[in-house]
Structures are given as structure tokens and as C-alpha cells.
Write a structure and sequence with these properties.
The chain is an all-beta fold. The chain has a domain of 141 residues. The protein is globular, with a radius of gyration of 19 Å. The protein starts with a strand and ends with a strand.
């Protein structure tokens, strides 16, 4: 059966609507909740971002960020806890950073929002680009900047933090050092066996293809002890990946992830497998040289019935991106190739599986060019 894609909503069809959904959706009953990094209202151009809900036949803005102490630019997805949603903003909050250091917020389905923590910058977290993880009764997360400063990360190399669920207690668990240690964790964490695992987009090995490092996979304990378990080593003549901007997925005792670059000689990205002890292997190299294959897989994979599913930001038909499935040994099938407006383009977030269908977002395309929410039935 041919997969059928339906565009459920195109953003930008009315004043103060959201613009640019960048994150994974979360399902509650028949409703899908998510964030847009722009649009809405506030003192940002073009808008400080929104929380939205798409229900059958309708879309509604749950909350519009206004910038300043309220937070702005939520590029990460939401998590659900205690009947509410929690999320992060990359900017707004404290004025100690230019444009704000970022926040953690709580919002109810009926639109009551409260900032539960404002980051202060300095050696702490700055710019939260990833969703939170609930672990050991607290929120754990990463910041792209802040922490230690190094030659390749002038705004700080990023941090890992722990925050109580009421927002009253925050601890910086680890500050990345750049260089071999890794820099700029832009993805969330995954808990495996009492520890947390994640990726840094840069740092690690410096090669002829990666001037500021090809990225890393790391493990961190609840106490903040960090170990780099793999450094990507993409250079001319190798198939190694580079720039892992997405989080990891556990399947069959191993961790699977994507790199936005590396792989074949055109650098179209890879899917890799890594053990918790650090043994790594590239299982697939994307290549636009295969005409309709995807390129730039920058979102996390999901595992359904032992199969991995994901998206690529580019490649496919007209470079508008793809949805693919992959076996654990690297056999790939492109399920859908986006065609661009009036359909979506640039699927930039992980899929979710709800009632035998996949749901996701595109950051661009749609009727008004400001992104879409879609459903794919196989």
C-alpha cells in the first residue's frame, strides 16, 4: 500500500499565528501539542513563538510568548507532567545575556503559562535548544552555550543541568570544555541504565572536514561525571558521520542516532549505532547521488516494532526532505518524499507514532510557507 500523507494544518494563515514549528509533537487524546519558534506576538521579529494544539479539523494557539522575562523562541518540544506541559525557550528570561539566557516554562492545556526558572548565564546554561528529560524525579537538560569558554566556543561550550520540577532548585552538572571533550549539545538526553546519554554537535576530533570538531556521544552520571564514549572522525576518504544534532534512541540494547553531515563524499549525513561502552558503526550513508534519497537527517529516530523511522531535512523530490524507515542493520526505505508548497517541506523534528499513523512537522512549506503539521499513514 502506498503511504498517504495529509497536511493537517498550514501555519501563517492568520494574524499572530505560529511560524516555523521546529519540534516533536506530543499527543494528548485526539489532540497534538507543539511549539513554533516564531510567530505569535511580543517584542520579537517575527513574533516570540507559540504553543499550539491541532485537533481534528482545527488549530488553536494555546499560548503566545511575549519576550523579555517571559521567554522567547521555543525551538524544543514539550513534555507532559502532572496534567501540564513543560518546555524551554532559547532566549528571554534574565537580561544577563543579550536577548535573554533562556527559560523553563509550564503551560496548561487551557493556556495558563508560568516561567518556573530563568537562567542567569555566566558559567551556567545559556540558550536551551532541547527538550527536557524526566529522570530520577527531576528535569535534566542541555544548553547549547554557557559554561566554559574555549577557542571554538566564544559563548561557552554548553552545559548539562538538573532542575527540580517546581523550578526552585537548579544545578549545573557539567560544563563542556570544547576540544576533545565536545561542544554545543543541542539535543536532549536519554536515560539508560542509571546514566544519561547525549550528543554534542561539535568538538571531539578536529579533521580536514570538521574545523571545530565533528561531534561526540557522551555519558553523564547523576552526579555530573562525564565520559566521551565516541568522537566522530569524518575526513576525506571515510564514511564516518559528523555533526550529530539529534538525540539518541534506544533499541535492542544499543543507541541509534543521526548525523547531519558526513557519510559519503558529499556529506549528506548518516545513521549510526553505538553501544553504551562506545563501540560505534555507521549503518547507513545518505546520498543525494542516489537521486531520490534523503539528505541531512537532523532529527532523532523513533523505534516502532523493532524498526527505526526518521526524517531528512533535505533531499528527495526538489530537495524538500523525506520520511524513511530503516532496519537495525541499515536497510533503508524512503516512505515519502515531500514536494514543497502547498505541501510542507523540510521535516525537521522527530516523528511520533499514534494509532498506527505517524505525525510530524515541517519547518517550511505549506500554503503560506511557514510550516505544517502532517500525518502519514502507511
Amino acid at each position: 500500500m502506498t503511504p498517504i500523507l495529509t497536511t493537517l494544518y498550514s501555519f501563517g494563515g492568520r494574524f499572530d499565528d505560529g511560524d516555523g514549528p521546529d519540534s516533536r509533537l506530543i499527543a494528548r487524546g485526539a489532540n497534538l501539542y507543539g511549539t513554533t519558534s516564531a510567530g505569535g506576538a511580543g517584542d520579537c521579529t517575527p513574533g516570540c513563538g507559540t504553543v499550539f494544539v491541532v485537533s481534528p479539523g482545527d488549530e488553536r494557539i494555546v499560548y503566545r510568548f511575549v519576550g523579555g522575562r517571559d521567554g522567547a523562541t521555543p525551538v524544543a518540544g514539550l513534555i507532559g507532567a502532572s496534567g501540564a506541559f513543560f518546555g524551554t525557550t532559547t532566549s528571554g528570561g534574565s537580561k544577563r545575556c543579550d536577548g535573554g539566557c533562556g527559560t523553563v516554562f509550564k503551560v496548561t492545556p487551557d493556556g495558563k503559562e508560568r516561567v518556573i526558572y530563568r537562567f542567569e548565564g555566566g558559567r551556567g546554561a545559556v540558550r536551551l535548544a532541547a527538550a527536557l528529560t524526566v529522570f530520577d524525579g527531576a528535569f535534566y537538560g542541555t544548553s547549547q552555550f554557557g559554561g566554559f569558554h574555549a577557542l571554538e566556543c566564544f559563548s561557552g561550550c554548553g552545559t548539562i543541568f538538573r532542575l527540580s520540577t517546581d523550578g526552585k532548585s537548579e544545578t549545573t552538572l557539567y560544563r563542556f570544555k570544547g576540544g576533545a571533550d565536545g561542544a554545543e549539545p543541542v539535543a536532549g538526553l536519554i536515560a539508560v541504565g542509571g546514566a544519561l546519554y547525549g550528543t554534542t554537535e561539535y568538538g571531539g576530533e578536529h579533521t580536514d572536514r570538521c574545523a571545530i570538531g565533528c561531534g561526540t556521544v557522551f555519558r553523564v552520571s547523576k552526579a555530573g561525571a562525564e565520559t566521551v564514549i565516541h568522537r566522530f572522525t569524518y575526513h576525506r576518504g571515510t564514511d564516518e558521520g559528523a555533526y550529530p544534532a539529534a538525540g539518541l534512541t534506544l533499541l535492542g540494547g544499543a543507541l541509534y542516532g543521526t548525523t547531519g553531515g558526513g557519510g559519503d563524499q558529499k556529506g549528506d549525513g548518516t545513521v549510526f549505532r553505538v553501544s553504551t561502552s562506545g563501540a560505534e558503526r555507521v549503518i547507513y550513508e545518505f546520498s543525494r547521488g542516489k537521486k531520490t534519497d534523503g539528505s541531512a537527517p537532523e532529527a532523532a529516530l523513533i523505534a516502532v516494532d523493532g524498526i527505526l523511522y526518521g526524517t531528512t531535512l533535505r533531499g528527495g523530490t526538489g530537495d524538500a526532505g523525506t520520511i524513511f524507515k530503516m532496519t537495525r542493520d541499515g536497510r533503508e526505505t524512503v516512505l515519502y518524499r515531500f514536494t514543497g508548497p502547498p505541501e510542507g517541506a523540510g521535516p525537521n523534528a522527530a516523528l511520533i507514532d499514534v494509532n498506527d499513523a505517524f505525525y510530524g512537522v515541517t519547518g517550511r512549506g505549506g500554503v503560506f510557507g511557514e510550516g505544517t503539521v502532517f500525518r502519514l499513514r502507511l
